Amino acid sequence: MIRKAHGRTQRHPGANDALTDVAGLRVGHARVSGAHALSGTTVVLGPQGGFVAAVDVRGGGPGTRETDALDPRNLVQHTDAIVLTGGSAYGLDSASGVMAWLEEQQRGFRIGLDPAQVVPVVPAACLFDLGRGGDWRSRPDAATGRAAVMAAAGTEAGAPVAQGSVGAGTGAVVGGLKGGVGTASARLAQGVTVAALVVVNAVGSAVDPLTGVLYGEYFQGRAAHPGEEVHREALRRTREAREESARRYAQSVRPPLNTTLAVVATDALLTRAQAQKLAGTAHDGFARALRPVHQLTDGDTVFALSTGALPLLTGEQDPAFAAQLAADALNEVLAAGADTVTRAIVKAVRAATGADGPGGVFPAYGELYPGAG
Predict the structure, then answer these.
(1) What's the pLDDT score for residue 315?
(2) Buried/exposed code over 332-354 (b: 16+ C-beta within 10 A; e: otherwise)
(3) What span, in angstroms and rounded, lies between the C-alpha atoms of 78 and 362?
(4) What is the C-alpha separation between 245 and 254, in angstroms, rounded?
(5) Mean pLDDT of 330-349
(6) Model-level pTM?
(7) Rounded Cα gap, residues 338 and 213, in angstroms
(8) Inter-residue contact 128 to 257 (CB < 8 Å)
(9) In the predicted model, what is the mean pLDDT of residues 59-79?
(10) How distant, in Å, are the alpha carbons of 14, 98, 244 from that of 132?
(11) Are the C-beta atoms of 2 and 189 separated by less than 8 Å?
């Protein structure tokens, strides 16, 4: 049985505390080039043979591609890569570059006798960062996607994952502060690993306005209050940054558009329906770390992946209780998924670097609250 401490499953972060702690997954980032570009793409690349995938969309303004293929009722059972990208709907073109690269590797849904006859299914989701660098037309394209998937393929198995203002998080903003990419993992008592990678780009805030503490840290038992003077100064600087951003980019859309994206993965053997449940419960991690969340001007989307390397249950099981034991084991994966999403959001905000350019001023949390936490 699963061991518990104080009513909670015993968990420990994986070797990198990152999505790549799920064996077989690789992550690559690419940034759009240009002096006034602030956008990019992140690709999660699976092992040969792909992974089971599902999706759950809660935001009111989503931008996605190939997500219908992930419905458990539909034909394709495995996919090879997931694309998270900036550039709003324009940026979905980056998935074309990933698709072309996969075809060259003869990876995808097999159509004919020739191994080269494949159609790669590449689900993708985008976030809004248009114009944040100053150039409205600087956005990811197929070349950006190709660069990101090649960067993923070029990493070693289990490699650390770059965090902060990289890849799809290059132009991310959360509540007026700089957002970015964060990742976290948990190894459960039964040996299963659950991990998340989040691109934090929310209309809502990650910071408690009363204290300056990151919301997500309240759920980690480690919230450290930065002090009243530091918090007052941070609020003042944040207000000035928002006013200056509005002045510099007067043509910006109102209200602001955003979207937070996530990939939650496990090496536990899940059905497509179970993976879809994991994608849904992972949104709880958004709600703990971002307020408000799932707004009409967010397109919040979570992908869930299962590499299927490990069974949920090991050893002999009493047939009379097998279904209940399996449900308990799956519940542990679901709970860990939401928890790793929360931690990944905190890590993303802490790792972000501020941006100051013609598209706006977006200070980083670490600049406003030096030494906090």
Answers:
(1) 61
(2) bbbbbbbbbbbbbbbbbbbbbeb
(3) 39
(4) 13
(5) 97
(6) 0.93
(7) 20
(8) yes
(9) 94
(10) 34, 25, 13
(11) yes
